[in-house]
Amino acid sequence: MKTATAIATALTLLSLSTVPALAATATKYQIKGQNAYASFYQSDDCSYSYVSVYGFDSATKSGPGAPISQTGAYLDYSSYNYCTGAQFYGGGFSENIPFTSNKLNSATLNGTFTVYDYYSETSKTATVNLTWTGTGDTYRGKSNSRYQGPGYSSIYRSSGSSRDAQVSGTVTLDGTNLIANMTSYGSLSTSSNGSLEIIK
What we know:
This protein has one helix spanning 2-17, and strands at residues 25-43, 47-61, 68-81, 87-95, 99-102, 106-117, 122-149, 152-173, 176-177, 183-199. It has 200 residues and is mainly β. Strands 1-2-3-4-6-7-8-10 form an eight-stranded antiparallel β-barrel. The relative contact order is 0.21.
C-alpha cells in the first residue's frame, strides 16, 4: 500500500513539473505622423463664425508586418447670428483625402468630402483647399511614463515638435467660402508615440 501511494505521489509531481509556465503576452503599438491645423474666427455685435480644419498623414504599427499609412482630415464649423437667430453647425471626417506635409516647413490639403450639418440634419459637400507655410520658432517636447501592477506593466512614450504657420486658401460649403475675411491661425506638427503592454 505504501508503495502504491509513493508511486502515485511521484507521478503527480512529475505531471505537475511538465506543465509549461504561462507565457507573458506583449502588445506593442506605434504611430508616427505629420499634422497641420488651422482655425478661422470672426465676430461682431450680431454674430460669430468659427471653422477648424485638421489634416494628418500617419503610419501605425501594432503587430508584425509593415506599418499602415493613412491620410485624413477633419472639418468643423459653426455660426450663430444673435440678431436674427440664424445658425448652423456641423462637421465631418474624410480618410485618404489628399494631404501632404513637408515636416514643419509646409503642408497642403486639397479635397472634397461629406460633412453632416447638425442644425438642418442634412449631409453636405465641403471642399477644402488650404496651404500652410511654417513661420517662427520650432518647439519640441518628450514624455515617458510607466505603470506596473500585479501581473501587468506598461510603458508609454511620446515626442513631437510644432511650429506656427501661415494658412491660406478656401473652405467652401454650398458654394460659399466659409473662411472669407476671417482671422486665421495655423500650425504644423510632427509626432511619434508608442506603447508596450505586458501581461504575465
